[in-house]
Amino acid sequence: xxxxxxxxxxxxxxxxxxxxxxxxxxxxxxxxxxxxxxxxxxxxxxxxxxxxxxxxxxxxxxxxxxxxxxxxxxxxxxxxxxxxxxxxxxxxxxxxxxxxxxxxxxxxxxxxxxxxxxxxxxxxxxxxxxxxxxxxxxxxxxxxxxxxxxxxxxxxxxxxxxxxxxxxxxxxxxxxxxxxxxxxxxxxxxxxxxxxxxxxxxxxxxxxxxxxxxxxxxxxxxxxxxxxxxxxxxxxxxxxxxxxxxxxxxxxxxxxxxxxxxxxxxxxxxxxxxx
Length: 275
What we know:
The protein has a single domain, classed as Rossmann fold (3-Layer(aba) Sandwich), CATH 3.40.50.1820. 31% of the residues lie in helices and 19% in strands. It has nine helices and nine strands. Helix 3 crosses helix 4 (125-135).
């Protein structure tokens, strides 16, 4: 997706009155001010709403920045910040979790963001949102996962009925420092450490294609949902019958937006803070 980079003078003129700037490059993302800068050696984005909502709620996007952005745009209109920390190539491994820890600290401690964001993970982004939430259950308001990878053996491993991806599987094994044989009994997947998330009563929403053969529902979301409910957790499933892995999200993102607003305490609230 093309991002228009504007001169400093133009950006400041267009977004006059915006909050104190973040470091790094300024650009326009769908008409909103975006900052791009490194944190802990990883590229990060922060997109500012025109008027921040009270308490600075935010949604934390994982992977595929800008793809099917309708939920992010709707929340920007509600005063949410939208953020991203690029941990591509790490498949949600412990190193990726540490990078996210650093970005979370930066946003909450230096910029006053809400202590509990909504997490949003598309496809392989499911790995990092769940692995980070399992380590930080007290720092998550809710999770929206879209056709998420919940078990690396399904994708990219292709050890079930799914298509798999051999080059990505090799990269994934390397990222975790395990062999293919060790992967058979690997317990570092989202489906394996749901207990802290359930104990924290974090609500989940999964939007999936019923005909997805890249990240099959039966090998990912269905297993996670069964285990989460057995632990007493709450999960809502929206299954798009006949839909493959793409397109992600919903044409009308209202159910997703309402879920995020409800569980970040913003539903029915006077969202926009007074200047």
